Inverse folding.
């Protein structure tokens, strides 16, 4: 059944069964409802702060927010903010890979950097190995830098052009005293070998390498301090398909050998499906759907997730897939829509979606969705 037909059927059911029609919201005060929802969310956040961290996970994020101030008063009070990450929560076990998917500008990269404290969170809790690091200062974070690292999207701009590969990889090893100074070069050469880099690359500069080789250098630099958590920010998006496969296989092998935990940010659903254990779907700073890989791909519940999956090319020419075209452009995160953030582009939007934000609920074990349409049809 197409999305349009499903929407019509739902609308009839709502009018006759659930009594949800346009008249119900004729005199609805959106601003009052927004303030009510904000108050309820704040109360929920305060309640969750009292809960102990989950001992079975290496990373637990609760109600994470990152707002960038756009305008201030003369006294420095924020007048308007860009809500890059807005109330995101998830858990990752040691050795797992969490894939984060969404359109450009949905807050994936900002969320990854905020988890690592490269950006200071506006509010929320980030439990790493049972300790809330959200309020840590720079000195406190310095000891944790060995355990948390990042691989950036653009390998060329993230590598200093005047440093050789040997210098690039040796510096973090020396700063964090990973091995004695007399053993640094041997340690770096061994690390280069693990990442598929020849030993004679040690004296070369970044501009002498291809994109795939530069990304291997970035991976080696991230692993030089023996981290436990690595945020991979679209590490293969700028590479050829054949090179992408090599880098993905390298990341999988290193994860198995070193028991690494990944947060893997990407646009490519096929790559995410291959490497991830859990998947989070983000839109306009919020988590729309979250669950195990099998559940998300076999039973996508949110209309946004279905639209993303319909855009994936099908290698079978005999099998026809129905493409779901999203309406309009992504709204500005500085002025997100009231109610459900996705309702302005959703083919399944109901009247309630325009006024009341959906609750982020667990519909199956470990499968969370924020959608009125799912609630009506589940």
């Amino acid at each position: 059944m197409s999305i349009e037909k499903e929407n019509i059927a739902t609308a009839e059911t709502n009018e006759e069964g659930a009594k949800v029609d346009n008249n119900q919201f004729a005199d609805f005060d959106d601003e009052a409802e927004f303030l009510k929802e904000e108050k309820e969310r704040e109360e929920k956040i305060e309640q969750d702060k009292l809960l102990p961290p989950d001992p079975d996970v290496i990373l637990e994020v609760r109600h994470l927010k990152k707002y960038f101030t756009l305008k201030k008063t003369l006294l420095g009070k924020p007048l308007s903010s860009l809500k890059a990450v807005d109330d995101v929560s998830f858990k990752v076990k040691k050795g797992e890979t969490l894939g984060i998917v969404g359109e450009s500008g949905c807050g994936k990269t900002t969320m990854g950097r905020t988890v690592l404290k490269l950006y200071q969170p506006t509010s929320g809790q980030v439990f790493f190995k049972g300790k809330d690091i959200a309020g840590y200062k720079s000195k406190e974070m310095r000891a944790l830098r060995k355990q948390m690292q990042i691989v950036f999207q653009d390998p060329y701009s993230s590598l200093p052009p005047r440093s050789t590969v040997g210098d690039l990889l040796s510096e973090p090893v020396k700063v964090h005293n990973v091995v004695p100074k007399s053993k640094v070069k041997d340690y770096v050469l061994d690390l280069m070998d693990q990442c598929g880099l020849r030993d004679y690359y040690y004296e070369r500069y970044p501009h002498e390498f291809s994109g795939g080789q530069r990304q291997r250098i970035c991976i080696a630099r991230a692993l030089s301090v023996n981290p436990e958590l690595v945020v991979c920010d679209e590490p293969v998006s700028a590479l050829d398909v054949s090179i992408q496969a090599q880098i993905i296989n390298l990341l999988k092998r290193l994860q198995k050998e070193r028991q690494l935990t990944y947060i893997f940010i990407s646009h490519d659903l096929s790559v995410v499906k291959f490497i991830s254990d859990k998947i989070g779907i983000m839109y306009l700073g919020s988590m729309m759907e979250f669950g195990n890989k099998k559940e998300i791909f076999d039973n996508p519940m949110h209309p946004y997730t279905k639209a993303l999956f319909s855009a994936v090319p099908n290698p079978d020419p005999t099998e026809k897939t129905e493409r779901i075209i999203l309406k309009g452009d992504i709204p500005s995160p500085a002025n997100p829509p009231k109610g459900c953030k996705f309702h302005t582009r959703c083919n399944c939007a109901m009247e309630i979606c325009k006024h009341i934000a959906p609750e982020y609920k667990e519909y199956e074990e470990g499968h969370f969705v924020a959608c009125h349409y799912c609630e009506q049809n589940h």
